[in-house]
Structures are given as C-alpha cells and as structure tokens.
C-alpha cells in the first residue's frame, strides 16, 4: 500500500446501483393490480364496470375481437406471456353493445372470467350479463 493520495476522487453515488426515482411512474401506476391500487391510494370513484378476463383462444374471430377490445374497452390490459397470457377488457354499462360483441366471441370458453367492479361475483355470467343485455338497443 502506498501513502500517495489517490489520483482520482471517487464519485459520491453508489455505482452500479440504478438511479431509481422515488415516486412510481404513470406506467407503473397503470400496471398495478386494481386491489393493490385501491389499498395504496384509496378507492377511485368510477361508474359500474364489467370486466372480461380471457386467455388466447383458438376460436374464429378472436383476432377481430381482440382488436375490438383494444379500441372500444374503457381500459384494456395484457398480462403474462406464452400460455399464461391474459387479456383484461373493462366496459362501463353504457358500452353494452361492445361488451356483447366481445362476449359473443370469448364468452364460450370456460377460461373467460366475468368481473363486476373488478371482483369475481357469483353468477356474473349467468345473471349479471343477461341483465346488461337488456340495455342493448332493439
């Protein structure tokens, strides 16, 4: 060991640690699970919603239904990869026509979940959706 002073002064930051922001970004907040978001920030007032959660399905018209969900859902999110990929499309009660169009394609699968205000509710598929179909124009 030498008694000479160092030729270069070390930086004040701790490298190789990432310089992370102290607050979450908007993208991180959007990606939060709705239950976690509610626990952290409280419940957001919003209208009644119906959410369809479905995997990749090998049914005719699936790609078109997926495009419809991306464009017309109040909120649309894709999670997972490969066989665990899931699509989540939220609709307000005023979007009954678009909800019905998507459900016609993905509703035949038992893997499709129907959530009311982001919660699984008994008989959501058998009771609640037919009640929403009454909102369809004739």
Record keyword descriptors for this entry.
single chain; about 140 residues; alpha+beta; about 35% helix
Topology:
Elements: H1 26-30, H2 34-41, E1 49-55, H3 62-72, E2 75-79, E3 86-92, H4 96-106, E4 113-116, E5 119-120, H5 124-133
Antiparallel strand pairs: 1-3, 1-4, 2-3, 4-5
* Biggest β-sheet strands, sense, barrel: 5 strands, antiparallel
| Helix and strand element order | HHEHEEHEEH
DSSP summary, beta strand count: 5
Assembly context of the chains: single chain
Uncertain spans: none
Whole-angstrom Rg: 23 Å
* Structural class by helix and strand composition: alpha+beta
Spatial strand order of the main sheet? 2-3-1-4-5
- Count of DSSP-assigned helices: 5
The shape, in one word, is elongated
What share of residues are in beta strands? 15-25%
N-end to C-end Cα span: 89 Å
Instruction: Indicate the percent of residues in helices.
Output: 25-40%
Q: Mean pLDDT, rounded to whole units?
A: 85
């Amino acid at each position: 060991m030498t008694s000479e002073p160092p030729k270069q002064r070390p930086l004040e930051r701790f490298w190789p640690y990432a310089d992370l922001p102290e607050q979450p970004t908007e993208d991180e907040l959007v990606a939060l699970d709705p239950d976690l978001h509610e626990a952290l920030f409280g419940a957001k007032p919003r209208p009644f919603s119906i959410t369809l959660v479905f995997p990749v399905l090998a049914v005719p018209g699936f790609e078109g239904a997926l495009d419809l969900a991306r464009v017309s859902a109040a909120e649309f999110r894709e999670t997972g990869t490969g066989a665990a990929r899931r699509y989540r499309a939220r609709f307000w009660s005023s979007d009954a026509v678009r909800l019905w169009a998507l459900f016609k394609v993905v509703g035949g699968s038992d893997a499709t979940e129907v959530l009311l205000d982001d919660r699984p509710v008994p008989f959501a598929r058998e009771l609640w959706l037919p009640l929403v179909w009454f909102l369809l124009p004739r």
